[in-house]
Structure to design on (378 residues):
């Protein structure tokens, strides 16, 4: 039978990762300009731990997505919208992988190893290098600005589909009490 | 005194001096020596170093008990791992370098604890507080140089390094590991008898 809804696992991963990304973005934007304090050190660590968690969840999500096809787009959708929707999703997946990696590399280059939850050291791929650290900081922040723009488009499109086109694009990603038809 | 007696006495002295004269490593080479430290921030080890210091070492591996070490560190030059941290740690809550520009260490006891292994104990003064510390170190020769490699762990709260909000040990741990690598050239202890 035709797939009309995302699986429960896909839905759970989508909203969990989405929420974690929004919180991490907010914390990231806020913490960068703080003057050094124990709070800043805590926020940086939490942000990094969140990044490692998001990265791991995204890997699981990619495997799930490859093995569990997404429901197809509504037939009424014009071709250009399909292309845009697809590219947006690929871009989001790419950014969800590249952004945590850039954060980890930037942290290493700045001489701060990432230690997951303060107990599991993640190896440094790069040695401490001030200039590279600054470049990677720029890379990390610009990738995030791009991410914010694409998330904006993603949310905007979902709402447009739901309220204007009145199709099932948003509903099929929402948890449902009904048993999903697969 | 006859000439013969004089020559005899002089030679005896030279022989005595030579037999007692072990090599002492005392000419510290600051450009080859380093003092580094590792603090832990949220479980993350962060390296730093004290690039400016002066050291006086008198060490004869054959007579460790007679060894003497004096160390003065210029705290304002600290490299605490990042620009933010460098600016922060010179401030009042940390080292307060305006009031206490230097840290110093003077050895009171040096003893051998194994083959090529020694232990030095003495008061370490930072920020107006003196606490005894004991550092283990290894000694080896490298050509004409003596190389000392050692470490000790200090508890920063004992020296009030990090006060106010920084006294919270869950963000910056109390234990700070200090490593030193000191290279000193050999210098003769007894005056070398002049030939002719």
């Amino acid at each position: 039978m035709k797939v009309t809804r995302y699986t429960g696992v896909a839905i759970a991963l989508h909203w969990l990762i989405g929420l974690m990304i929004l919180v991490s973005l907010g914390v990231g934007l806020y913490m960068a300009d703080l003057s050094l304090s124990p709070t800043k050190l805590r926020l940086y660590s939490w942000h990094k731990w969140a990044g490692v968690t998001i990265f791991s969840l995204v890997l699981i999500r990619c495997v799930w997505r490859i093995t569990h096809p997404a429901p197809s787009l509504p037939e009424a959708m014009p071709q250009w919208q399909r292309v845009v929707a697809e590219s947006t999703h690929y871009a989001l997946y790419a950014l969800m992988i590249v952004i945590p990696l850039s954060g980890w590399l930037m942290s290493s280059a700045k001489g701060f190893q990432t230690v997951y939850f303060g107990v599991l050291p993640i190896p440094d791929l790069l040695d401490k290098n001030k200039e590279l650290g600054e470049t990677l900081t720029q890379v990390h922040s610009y990738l995030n600005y791009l991410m914010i723009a694409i998330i904006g488009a993603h949310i905007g499109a979902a709402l447009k589909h739901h309220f204007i086109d009145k199709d099932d694009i948003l509903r099929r990603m929402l948890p449902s009490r009904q048993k999903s038809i697969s | 005194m006859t000439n013969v007696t004089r020559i005899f006495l002089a030679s005896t002295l030279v022989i005595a001096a030579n037999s007692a004269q072990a090599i002492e490593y005392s000419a510290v080479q600051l450009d080859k020596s380093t003092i580094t430290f590792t603090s832990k921030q949220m479980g993350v080890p962060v390296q730093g170093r004290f690039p400016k210091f002066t050291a006086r070492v008198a060490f004869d591996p054959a007579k460790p008990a007679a060894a003497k070490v004096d160390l003065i560190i210029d705290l304002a030059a600290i490299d605490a791992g990042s620009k933010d941290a460098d600016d922060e740690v010179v401030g009042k809550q940390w080292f307060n370098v305006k009031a206490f520009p230097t840290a110093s260490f003077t050895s009171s006891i040096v003893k051998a604890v194994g083959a090529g292994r020694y232990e030095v104990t003495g008061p370490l003064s930072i920020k107006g507080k003196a606490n005894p510390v004991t550092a283990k170190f290894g000694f080896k020769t490298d050509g004409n140089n003596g190389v000392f490699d050692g470490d000790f762990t200090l508890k920063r709260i004992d020296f009030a390094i990090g006060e106010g909000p920084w006294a919270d040990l869950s963000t910056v741990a109390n234990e700070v590991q200090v490593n030193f690598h000191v290279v000193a050239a050999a210098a003769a202890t007894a005056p070398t008898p002049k030939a002719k």
User: Anything to note?
Assistant: The first helix of chain B runs from residue 3 to 20. The longest strand of chain B covers residues 129-142. Chain B touches chain A through 18 residues (CB under 8 Å). Confidence is low (pLDDT under 50) at residues 12-20, 190-196 of chain B.
